[in-house]
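We examine the record.
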Amino acid sequence: MMMSFTDLQEKRRSIYVLGDNVSQTPEELFELVKSAVKHAPTAFNNQTVRTVVLFGEKKDQLWDITADRLKSEVPTEAAYQNTLEKLNSFKAGVATVLFYSDTDVVKTFEENIPLYSENFYDWSEQGHGIAEYATWLAVTEAGLGANIQHYNPLIDEPVAKAFDIPAHWRLRAQLNIGSIEEPASIKEYMTDDDRFKLVK
Protein backbone atom coordinates (compact mmCIF):
# COMPACT_ATOMS: atom_id res chain seq x y z
CA MET A 1 0.00 0.00 0.00
CA MET A 2 1.37 3.41 -0.98
CA MET A 3 2.12 5.80 1.87
CA SER A 4 0.35 9.14 2.05
CA PHE A 5 2.53 12.22 1.82
CA THR A 6 2.09 12.87 5.56
CA ASP A 7 3.09 9.30 6.40
CA LEU A 8 6.11 9.64 4.15
CA GLN A 9 7.12 12.85 5.91
CA GLU A 10 6.86 11.16 9.29
CA LYS A 11 8.88 8.17 8.13
CA ARG A 12 11.72 10.31 6.75
CA ARG A 13 14.41 10.53 9.39
CA SER A 14 18.17 10.99 9.67
CA ILE A 15 19.57 7.46 9.53
CA TYR A 16 23.19 7.33 10.64
CA VAL A 17 23.76 3.56 10.55
CA LEU A 18 23.58 2.83 6.85
CA GLY A 19 24.45 -0.27 4.87
CA ASP A 20 24.71 -1.36 1.26
CA ASN A 21 21.95 -3.98 1.44
CA VAL A 22 19.83 -2.43 -1.28
CA SER A 23 17.91 -4.00 -4.14
CA GLN A 24 18.17 -0.97 -6.43
CA THR A 25 20.97 -0.73 -8.97
CA PRO A 26 23.13 2.41 -9.17
CA GLU A 27 21.28 3.30 -12.37
CA GLU A 28 17.90 3.02 -10.64
CA LEU A 29 19.03 5.18 -7.73
CA PHE A 30 20.50 7.70 -10.17
CA GLU A 31 17.13 7.91 -11.94
CA LEU A 32 15.37 8.35 -8.59
CA VAL A 33 17.62 11.32 -7.74
CA LYS A 34 17.21 12.79 -11.22
CA SER A 35 13.43 12.61 -11.05
CA ALA A 36 13.22 14.11 -7.56
CA VAL A 37 15.44 17.07 -8.46
CA LYS A 38 13.98 17.58 -11.93
CA HIS A 39 10.44 17.96 -10.62
CA ALA A 40 11.32 20.07 -7.57
CA PRO A 41 10.25 23.70 -8.07
CA THR A 42 12.68 26.61 -8.37
CA ALA A 43 12.09 30.36 -8.54
CA PHE A 44 11.37 31.51 -12.12
CA ASN A 45 11.97 27.87 -13.09
CA ASN A 46 15.68 28.73 -13.10
CA GLN A 47 16.71 25.14 -12.27
CA THR A 48 19.92 26.04 -10.45
CA VAL A 49 20.34 22.69 -8.67
CA ARG A 50 23.00 20.30 -9.96
CA THR A 51 23.82 16.84 -8.60
CA VAL A 52 26.66 14.35 -8.75
CA VAL A 53 25.81 10.84 -7.52
CA LEU A 54 28.78 8.84 -6.28
CA PHE A 55 28.86 5.05 -5.85
CA GLY A 56 31.46 2.49 -4.83
CA GLU A 57 35.08 3.61 -4.83
CA LYS A 58 34.13 7.14 -5.90
CA LYS A 59 31.84 7.49 -2.87
CA ASP A 60 34.62 6.23 -0.62
CA GLN A 61 37.06 8.63 -2.26
CA LEU A 62 34.82 11.55 -1.31
CA TRP A 63 34.96 10.62 2.37
CA ASP A 64 38.71 9.93 2.20
CA ILE A 65 39.15 13.44 0.80
CA THR A 66 37.02 14.79 3.63
CA ALA A 67 39.06 12.86 6.21
CA ASP A 68 42.32 14.28 4.82
CA ARG A 69 40.91 17.81 4.81
CA LEU A 70 39.59 17.59 8.37
CA LYS A 71 42.90 16.30 9.72
CA SER A 72 44.15 19.89 9.96
CA GLU A 73 40.90 21.18 11.47
CA VAL A 74 40.22 18.74 14.30
CA PRO A 75 42.04 19.80 17.51
CA THR A 76 43.09 16.43 18.98
CA GLU A 77 43.88 12.92 17.79
CA ALA A 78 40.99 11.53 19.84
CA ALA A 79 38.59 13.97 18.21
CA TYR A 80 39.99 13.05 14.80
CA GLN A 81 39.38 9.36 15.44
CA ASN A 82 35.78 10.18 16.31
CA THR A 83 35.55 12.14 13.06
CA LEU A 84 36.92 9.17 11.08
CA GLU A 85 34.34 6.90 12.68
CA LYS A 86 31.59 9.23 11.53
CA LEU A 87 32.99 9.50 8.00
CA ASN A 88 33.31 5.72 7.79
CA SER A 89 29.61 5.44 8.60
CA PHE A 90 28.92 7.46 5.45
CA LYS A 91 31.14 5.11 3.46
CA ALA A 92 29.04 2.19 4.67
CA GLY A 93 26.08 3.39 2.64
CA VAL A 94 25.54 2.72 -1.05
CA ALA A 95 25.72 6.26 -2.47
CA THR A 96 26.39 9.91 -1.73
CA VAL A 97 24.62 12.67 -3.63
CA LEU A 98 26.52 15.93 -3.98
CA PHE A 99 24.15 18.89 -4.35
CA TYR A 100 25.53 21.90 -6.19
CA SER A 101 24.22 25.33 -7.14
CA ASP A 102 25.04 26.62 -10.62
CA THR A 103 26.20 30.14 -9.80
CA ASP A 104 26.31 31.12 -13.48
CA VAL A 105 22.55 30.64 -13.69
CA VAL A 106 22.01 32.64 -10.51
CA LYS A 107 24.19 35.44 -11.90
CA THR A 108 22.33 35.45 -15.23
CA PHE A 109 18.99 35.89 -13.51
CA GLU A 110 20.42 38.63 -11.29
CA GLU A 111 21.57 40.50 -14.41
CA ASN A 112 18.48 39.88 -16.53
CA ILE A 113 15.89 40.65 -13.88
CA PRO A 114 17.45 43.49 -11.85
CA LEU A 115 14.22 44.24 -9.96
CA TYR A 116 14.69 40.98 -8.06
CA SER A 117 18.47 40.70 -8.31
CA GLU A 118 18.99 40.69 -4.53
CA ASN A 119 16.65 37.71 -4.16
CA PHE A 120 18.02 35.16 -6.60
CA TYR A 121 20.75 33.82 -4.32
CA ASP A 122 18.24 33.28 -1.51
CA TRP A 123 15.77 31.74 -3.93
CA SER A 124 18.48 29.40 -5.17
CA GLU A 125 19.08 28.24 -1.61
CA GLN A 126 15.34 27.67 -1.16
CA GLY A 127 15.35 25.61 -4.35
CA HIS A 128 18.13 23.52 -2.87
CA GLY A 129 16.18 22.85 0.28
CA ILE A 130 13.20 21.71 -1.74
CA ALA A 131 15.30 19.50 -4.05
CA GLU A 132 17.18 17.92 -1.16
CA TYR A 133 13.96 17.25 0.74
CA ALA A 134 12.27 15.83 -2.37
CA THR A 135 15.22 13.50 -2.91
CA TRP A 136 15.19 12.43 0.74
CA LEU A 137 11.45 11.67 0.53
CA ALA A 138 11.99 9.68 -2.67
CA VAL A 139 14.74 7.68 -0.96
CA THR A 140 12.42 7.08 2.00
CA GLU A 141 9.61 5.93 -0.29
CA ALA A 142 12.07 3.46 -1.84
CA GLY A 143 12.58 1.92 1.61
CA LEU A 144 16.06 3.33 2.14
CA GLY A 145 17.63 5.55 4.75
CA ALA A 146 19.62 8.76 4.40
CA ASN A 147 21.36 11.54 6.25
CA ILE A 148 22.48 14.92 5.01
CA GLN A 149 25.84 16.55 5.69
CA HIS A 150 27.43 19.92 5.05
CA TYR A 151 31.22 19.65 4.87
CA ASN A 152 31.28 22.44 2.34
CA PRO A 153 33.11 24.75 1.90
CA LEU A 154 36.03 22.94 3.56
CA ILE A 155 36.05 20.17 0.95
CA ASP A 156 34.97 22.16 -2.10
CA GLU A 157 38.33 22.52 -3.82
CA PRO A 158 39.68 18.95 -3.50
CA VAL A 159 36.28 17.46 -4.35
CA ALA A 160 35.98 19.66 -7.44
CA LYS A 161 39.42 18.52 -8.57
CA ALA A 162 38.73 14.84 -7.89
CA PHE A 163 35.40 14.68 -9.71
CA ASP A 164 35.93 17.30 -12.43
CA ILE A 165 33.32 19.71 -11.08
CA PRO A 166 32.83 22.95 -13.06
CA ALA A 167 34.20 26.04 -11.31
CA HIS A 168 30.80 27.74 -11.33
CA TRP A 169 29.14 24.91 -9.38
CA ARG A 170 29.01 25.65 -5.64
CA LEU A 171 28.74 22.67 -3.26
CA ARG A 172 25.80 22.95 -0.88
CA ALA A 173 25.20 19.51 0.72
CA GLN A 174 26.01 15.82 0.74
CA LEU A 175 23.18 13.25 1.07
CA ASN A 176 24.24 9.73 2.10
CA ILE A 177 21.95 6.87 1.07
CA GLY A 178 21.84 3.23 2.12
CA SER A 179 19.93 0.45 3.77
CA ILE A 180 18.59 1.15 7.26
CA GLU A 181 20.76 -0.90 9.61
CA GLU A 182 19.54 0.83 12.79
CA PRO A 183 16.42 2.98 13.18
CA ALA A 184 16.58 6.66 14.01
CA SER A 185 16.32 7.79 17.62
CA ILE A 186 13.09 9.23 18.96
CA LYS A 187 12.51 12.71 17.64
CA GLU A 188 11.45 15.47 20.00
CA TYR A 189 9.25 18.33 18.85
CA MET A 190 8.85 21.78 20.34
CA THR A 191 5.31 22.77 21.26
CA ASP A 192 3.00 23.71 18.40
CA ASP A 193 2.12 26.99 20.10
CA ASP A 194 5.73 28.13 19.74
CA ARG A 195 5.82 27.37 16.01
CA PHE A 196 2.39 27.82 14.49
CA LYS A 197 -0.19 30.59 14.43
CA LEU A 198 -3.68 30.33 13.01
CA VAL A 199 -5.17 33.59 11.76
CA LYS A 200 -8.74 33.71 10.41
The first strand starts at residue 18 and ends at 19.
